[in-house]
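Dear colleague,

Following up on yesterday's call, I've attached the two folding results inline so they're easy to grep. Please treat them as preliminary; we haven't cross-checked anything against experimental data yet. The first protein's sequence and structure tokens come first.
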Amino acid sequence: MLRFKKIKMLVKIKSVVEILKNNGVGVIPTDTIYGLVGSALSRKTVTRIYELRERNPGKPMIILVASIEDIRQFGIRVNRRVSKILDELWPGKVSVILPRKSKKFSYLHRNKNSLAFRLPQKRNLIEILEKTGPLVAPSANLEGKSPAKTITEAKKYFGDRADFYLNGGKLISAPSTLVKIKNGEISVKRLGGRKNF
């Protein structure tokens, strides 16, 4: 297994991709705020992120994807109606909760029988996702604390326990709007970066 050097300075995208593909975790700027990210397809990585963030184990995390097709990796079937809704919402600052009834990926859905996805708009973030695959991306903070607006703030939370920090400057933004799609209908669970529908 690849052993990571703790990277404290600005890192190159190539290094970020390599670390994430080898089950590392790090802080990157997302399309909303800084996120503590790691492979959504690695139970070990997801568990590590829960521990780093001291996150409530019953709370699922949002998964960033590079395309609607990525959702199928999680056993979710997207019918024509849902696909049309996603096309209207994405890319952008909207995370979408979709039903997921199987026990597979329980380490992600935490017995909620659903998973939340977001297709971001930032091209450089999409390029990372195309190379790494889907990433869990909770905000870069400890449970109950304010999301980091800068890399300096993120380092105060995680220090050397994160494998890298990717500097995107100061980020001041609301988190993503969170909606749920059930039976082809949308319900808003949290208002954030996008207000209108």
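Below is the second protein, in the same order (sequence, then structure):
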Amino acid sequence: MRTLVLLTLGIVCANAQDTPANRITLSGAWGHDIGRFASFERQSAAGFGVSYGRRIRRFLEPEIGLFVALDPSGEQCSRFGCVDTRDRFYWLPFGLRFVASTNRLEFSGGGGGLFEQYTGGTPLPGGGPFDRHGWGGYFVASAGVALDRGKHLWLSGTPRWFLANPKYARDRWLQVSGEVSWRW
């Protein structure tokens, strides 16, 4: 009987949550192309994103998100004039995040799979940039602080590395974001 009580207590403690289980996060970000094989010169872009996570164990959280880099190539000029292609990168990461938290501080890291979609927008004179999509992976790290006693509102800083391999391209991006999360 004592073994059964200890086993039950162990299971209950293993599933204990120190913060609410669901998380929705809004991100404002700056991204930079860190790959050696950029389609144009090195690119930088402002972006935004949203992600959702559900804590299934005290230290484990599956997550999914959508992140966007707005107009990374900017204005392209040639002998035919200048054109702003209004291109976009869309990243859809899905994976696991490992979480370590203290009283009101939280550190996390993880990674998983990634789907990338690049839309070229307005074509340049002479052609390109061309739309493409592909699969890859991502890595994430984060440090955050709870802004209220109930640990519902969080503020954090998060770098993400997106590594995608669409056909004829190798996209490598670092995105650094400030994030606000609501947990329930």
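For the second protein, one point worth flagging: The CA atoms of residues 25 and 181 lie 4 Å apart.

Best wishes,
A.L.
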